[in-house]
Amino acid sequence: MSKGTIVFDLDGTLVDSAPDINVIADAVLATQGAAPLTLAQTRDFIGNGAGVFVSRMMRARDISDTPALHASLLKDFETRYRTATQHSVLYPDVVAVLTTLKDAGFKLGLCTNKPMAPTQAVLEHFEIGRFFDAVSGGDSQPQTKPDAAPLLNVFAQLGDGTRLYVGDSEVDAETAQNAAVPFALFTEGYRKTPVSELPHTYVFSSFADLPGIVASHS
Predict the structure, then answer these.
(1) Above 60 in pLDDT, residue 1?
(2) What are residue 75's phi and psi, to 5 degrees?
(3) What is the tens place of the pLDDT at every residue in 14-36?
(4) Active-site residue (options: 9, 11, 168, 172)
(5) Does 9 qualify as catalytic in the annotation?
(6) pLDDT tens digits along 59-73
């Protein structure tokens, strides 16, 4: 019997994928003769899915965001993105904490706006797919975060028990609010807003502290 259900965001929460996304964005921009993005810009643009990222990238380099050109650059971006894992890294203690929570009887899920193909590539590369009983990507259903539907769908697949959502960003905080689910904010990801201004139930800067938060919540 599950002790409870915990759903995680992926980029900026479990894995720092910004370096890979930065390399991909720069390669796509180069096809337009445009200057590369900084890593800081890349981090700022992550969170609302690949389509929004490409739009932000195009605006940052004064590329006209016409439907045809956006579609072309998005296709190029997604093709390169599908297997991009070379520069990504897990945040410290992620594997140990996922192991601890799983062994303790919690049902774990993943809800990300990252498309499913690169999501699966990351899960396989870091060998963490085994921890998750349900996974939702940015193209798994019509809605994406901050709409509550993807998160609630993952929780529904996990079954009954206390609920906790773990994420790092404004999008995650809004998603948790829309889903009326308690939210644990990881402060070391891609947020742009001060912690004090982001709605959250719990806050942590090290994954080593998450089991204690889960214990107090459960």
Answers:
(1) no
(2) -60, -45
(3) 999 999 999 999 999 999 999 99
(4) 9
(5) yes
(6) 999 999 999 999 999
- In the chain, the amino acid numbered 168 is D
Q: Could you give the CA distance from residue 28 to residue 48 in angstroms, rounded to a whole number?
A: 19
Residue 193, pLDDT above cutoff 90: yes
State the DSSP string of the chain: --S-EEEE--BTTTEE-HHHHHHHHHHHHHTTTPPPPPHHHHHHHTTS-HHHHHHHHHHHTT----HHHHHHHHHHHHHHHTT--TT-EEPTTHHHHHHHHHHTT-EEEEE-SS-HHHHHHHHHHTT-GGG-SEEE-TTSSS--TTSSHHHHHHHHHH-SS-EEEEE-SHHHHHHHHHHT--EEEETTSS--S-GGGS--SEEESSGGGHHHHHHHH-
Helical (H) or strand (E) element with 81: helix 67-81
